[in-house]
Structures are given as structure tokens and as C-alpha cells.
Amino acid sequence: MSPKGAQPDFVETVVNVRYAETDQMGIAYYANYLVWFEVGRVAWCKAKGFHYADMEARDKHYLIVVEASCRYKSPAHFEEDIVVRTSLARANDRVIRYRYEIRRKSDNHLLATGETAHVVTDINHKPSRLPDRYRAYFSLPPRV
Amino acid sequence: MSPKGAQPDFVETVVNVRYAETDQMGIAYYANYLVWFEVGRVAWCKAKGFHYADMEARDKHYLIVVEASCRYKSPAHFEEDIVVRTSLARANDRVIRYRYEIRRKSDNHLLATGETAHVVTDINHKPSRLPDRYRAYFSLPPRV
Amino acid sequence: MSPKGAQPDFVETVVNVRYAETDQMGIAYYANYLVWFEVGRVAWCKAKGFHYADMEARDKHYLIVVEASCRYKSPAHFEEDIVVRTSLARANDRVIRYRYEIRRKSDNHLLATGETAHVVTDINHKPSRLPDRYRAYFSLPPRV
Amino acid sequence: MSPKGAQPDFVETVVNVRYAETDQMGIAYYANYLVWFEVGRVAWCKAKGFHYADMEARDKHYLIVVEASCRYKSPAHFEEDIVVRTSLARANDRVIRYRYEIRRKSDNHLLATGETAHVVTDINHKPSRLPDRYRAYFSLPPRV
Question: Are B73 and B113 in contact (CB under 8 A)?
Fold first, then answer.
């Protein structure tokens, strides 16, 4: 993000692949990567200083997924520790974009990359704006 | 249930086993049977003449699971059609009990049996009573 | 498929949204769309005349997902019937690409679109070629 | 542990409830408790000194679930840390039984209890006996 091409600000969290997440190919089923991205987002929020649960329960605002994509490079296996790395790709007070990497913990091997986009909505799922108290978490300047 | 050992009143619905539901043992993962029981309950409600979705959305009452059990006799495999058979085991206006059988469609082979128990709650998840308009569906006499 | 820009050849299958597939937002959780795409692929294979299960069990070849993406237009709800429409986007004997639409059955409203890409592998998950007997299903000419 | 009927030997592991695991009731969906029991079993094996993954991959033996039950006392919510407590209830070299408790981490409140039973099978899913090298982990005496 810095002018010198520094690494984006990834937040890391570790997930252990569950038996439930494998399929008969003997590897983690592809839809689970989107679940792991969500685990990554929750960890990202916590690392930034808030709980996504509060945005819903207290502030009655939601981040609804509008796009998701994943490129699968190498399979994940039962009982492997994987690192879910989450960074904010872009944000304004209406649309939030995240980027993800999933790596095998033992050797840092890249297993997958992905992106999601989310629109901010109110409790009725209508497009809205990020509540002011969350702006700083998403690196948005205070509103004047 | 009748003195002559008549069959309980099973409602049947067919589910095709999904790849997502298999695990690395090459068979359907055990937690999915509880999902299929839920598919069976939804089919049971429809067969009785109502939608469970309406009980929640319109009548603000919920059937919260308090017990679930399953005995696995024989595995289910990807792409197999299975028949989920659901019957009301017992009901009063506070607690509902269902029984289930899961059979392979091709040869009627029994794959699993199970039970669930549900308490009726209001929208705040507090114990409540079945709304009157649903009593008949559960073979309960009208309230006087 | 026709030279005049005709509709691609979509195979349709209906899925009823399960309670298990909803989340606390009251709508179907986003990862489930990838499960529904898989249900669509299985239906597509069947409509073309083969079972994907056989490609694995008998021919020891696998279609491993390497890319998946989904654009979510409108949410899906519990008990709604949705139509999963699957078409072959592009295929050679090493890589298969599918396209999907998910529509609400009641009014044909578009809920989501998506794509997946799959590489053909052998039983050891090494890149391979589509077994000859499957070429016609994917509109590939016989090998000489 | 003690001769005087002390507490069974529970192994504990912490799980954070995922958004994917909630349903439209706003609580964790009931089938996920069986997934958490599996997470508990994997933690139990690790605590005893082996990996369940190795029993499958190296020793070609499987623990297939034949019974599962759960009593739900109090709901689990998104982002809550829950403690899965797993103990061996009974074991011989053909059948293994586990017991579970799920507690909210913040206040130790009991959310659910459960049991599972597993039969030991070979790679073809035929009943077999626990490989000798695993006997001690299940508190079974060496075979003579």
C-alpha cells in the first residue's frame, strides 16, 4: 500500500482443516474456502479493534457479499493447519473489498487466493452507509 | 401406533447426496443426516398443509431443537437418491417429537434412523405454546 | 451455441433452500452457492448422459476445481425453490469451464451468476486428459 | 482419574462460532454440534499422542460413526468462543464411545452434551480391530 510497494496489511488467523470439510477426493471441498475467508474477515475486524457481530447487533448494519472468487492452487488436507491472510483491498462507505491468501502453515506454501466484495446495508438489506464509528477501521477519514 | 401395529404416518421426500456432503472416507459425513432430517421436517409440514417458514415469519414462533439422535446402519454415497421418511412421534403444544428413517431409494435399504425433539418458542427464544392455527397439523384438538 | 448468438445450452435443476443453508442475516449463506453450482454440474452430466460419480469410480479421473467465482444479485431465502442453470462455457481435454445462473423459480428473478474452471486429473491429482469415452459429452471431437 | 469416581478425563479445545454456522434463528444450526464433536475427537487424539489422520493414511483403519446424539441446553452464537470437551466413555478394540460437553468459554455455561459411538473398520469399511499400536491410547491393555 505504501508508495514503495510494501506488503498490504494482512491479518493472519490459523484454521485447522476439519474432517467435515473434506470430500471424497480426500481434500477440502472448494466451497469451504469461502467459509475460511469469512473466518479471515472476522479475524481482520478483531485485529482492527471491533467485532463484526456488534456492527449487526448494535448498529444494525450489515456487510452483504456481492462478489466472491477463489483461485485454488494446491489442495488443503484434513488436520492441516492453514493460515488465512486477510487484507482490505479497497473501501468506501458503501462498498468494502477484501483480498485473501490461504497458505499451508507448515511450509508457507500458497494454497489459494481470493477476493470478496460487500455492500453496506441497513437491517432491511437496503444499501446504506458505513456507520461513522466504523470509518476509521476501514481507513476512511471522518465525515465532516 | 394403532393397536394393530399399523405403520406410522411417514411423509417421504427424496434427496440426492451432494459431493459437498461426502468426506474423505468416501461416504456422506455424519452431520449431514441431521440436515436431511430438517429437509424431512420441511416436507412433513408441507404435506400437512403449512410452511414452516410461515410459522416463523408470520406467527413469530419457532421450533427449537433440544434433542437429536441418529443411528447409522449403512453409508450413503455421492449421487445416490435417498428417501427421508418423517413422522410425528409425539406432540403437545409445547414439545414436538419427530422420528425419521433414511433409506436408499434404489432398493429401500435402511441407512439410518433418528429422532429429534423441539420446543415451541416465541421470537425471543422463550418457551411458548404452539399457535392455535397450527394445532390441527400436529393432531392436537382445538383449544376451548 | 448457434452462430446467431443463441442462448447457451443450459441444463436446469431445482434446489429448495434448506434451513441449514441460511445464516443469521436470514438469507442463504454465500458459500452455499458454490454447493449449488456443484449440484448443477451433476445435473449437467446426467443430462448429457453420464454420471460424474462414474468418472471417478470407474475411470479414475477427477475434475478438480481451480477457479470459482460468484456474483450475488439478490438473496435466496429458506424454502424458496431456486433453479440452477448450468452450461459448458469452454472445454478441451485438460480444462473444463462451466457457467451458472441461479434464478428464483417463482418469478425467474436472477439471484446469482457464476463460473468455475476444472482441470482433469488422474487418481493422484496429477494433470491428465479427459478419458476418450467422455470427449463427446464435452463436445470434443474423437481423438484420431 | 482418581479411584474415587472423579471427573472423566476431558480434553478441551476451543472453537469460535462461524457466521456460516448460524441459521436464520440467529443461533448456531444444530447439525454443527456434530462437527464440533468431531473437532473434539481430533483434539482428543492429539492430546493422547497420535493423529487420527495417520490411523487412516498409514494404518488403513477407520472409526466409522454408528450412533450420535446431542442434547441442546442453550444456544451458541456467532463469534462466541465455545469449549468442546471430549472424553472416552468406553472402548474395546471394536467399538469406541465418546462423550462430549460444549460450554460457553466466557462463563462456562453448559450449551450441550452428546455422545458418539464408532466401529473400527478396515479400508473397505468392514468391521475390524483397532491396530495394536493404538490400543494404549484407548486405555486398552497390550494384546498377548
Answer: yes
At a CB cut-off of 8 Å and minimum separation 6, what does C99 contact? C8, C86, C87, C88, C89, C113, C114, C115
For chain B, percent helix, then strand, then coil, each to nearest 5?
Answer: 20, 35, 40
Judge: D67–B62 Cβ closer than 8 Å, yes or no. Answer: no
Ranges in chain C, pLDDT < 50: 1-3, 5
What is the rounded CA–CA span in Å between residue A28 and residue B29? 13
Q: How far is B20 from chain D (nearest CA, A)?
A: 14
State the smallest CA–CA distance between residue A22 and chain C in angstroms.
13
**C-beta atoms of C39 and B18 within 8 A:** yes
Question: Which of helix, strand or coil describes residue B58?
Answer: coil
- List chain B residues with CB under 8 Å of A78: 24
> In this structure, is the dihedral angle defined by the CA atoms of residues A92, D18, A124 and C76, taken in order, positive or negative?
positive
Residues B69-90 have a mean pLDDT of 98
Cα–Cα distances in angstroms (integers) from residue C41 to residues A43, C58, D7, in the given order? 33, 18, 50
Distance from the first to the final alpha carbon of chain D: 26
Burial of A12 (0-12, 13-18, 19+ CB in 10 A): middle
Distance, in Å, from the CA atom of C135 to the CA atom of D63, rounded to the nearest integer, reads 39
User: How many Cβ atoms sit within 10 Å of the Cβ of residue D111?
Assistant: 21
Stated pTM of the model: 0.95
Which residues, including other chains, have CB under 8 Å from residue B84's CB and lie 6 or more apart? B12, B13, B14, B15, B36, B37, B39, B40, B43, B100, B101, B102
Cβ pair A69:C64 closer than 8 A:
no
Query: Which chain C residue is nearest to residue A121, measuring alpha carbons?
Result: C25
CA gap C69, A112 in Å, rounded: 13
Q: Which residues of B touch C86 (CB under 8 A)?
A: none
- The Cα D132–Cα A17 span in angstroms is 27
Mean pLDDT rounded to a whole number for chain C: 94
pLDDT(B36) > 80: yes
What would the grid cell of residue A55 be?
A: 456492527
For chain C, the C-alpha Rg in angstroms (whole number) is: 16
Classify C56 as helix, strand or coil. helix
**pLDDT per position as a tens digit, A20-52:** 999 999 999 999 999 999 999 999 999 999 999
What residues of B are in contact with residue A24 (Cβ under 8 Å)?
Answer: 19, 22-27, 78
Is it the case that residue D130 has pLDDT exceeding 70?
Answer: yes
Strand partners, B81: B16
User: Cα D12–D18–D19 angle (5° rounding)?
Assistant: 160
* A13-18 mean pLDDT: 98
D16 contacts A53? CB cut-off 8 A: no
ipTM of the modeled complex: 0.94
Instruction: Answer whether D24 sits within 8 Å of C20, measured CB to CB.
Output: no
Q: What integer best gives the mean pLDDT of chain B?
A: 94
In this complex, is the C-beta atom of B19 within 8 Å of any C-beta atom belonging to chain C?
yes
What pLDDT was estimated at residue B8?
67
Q: Is D59 a residue of the active site?
A: no
Q: Nearest Cβ partner of C34 from A34, A38, A66?
A: A34
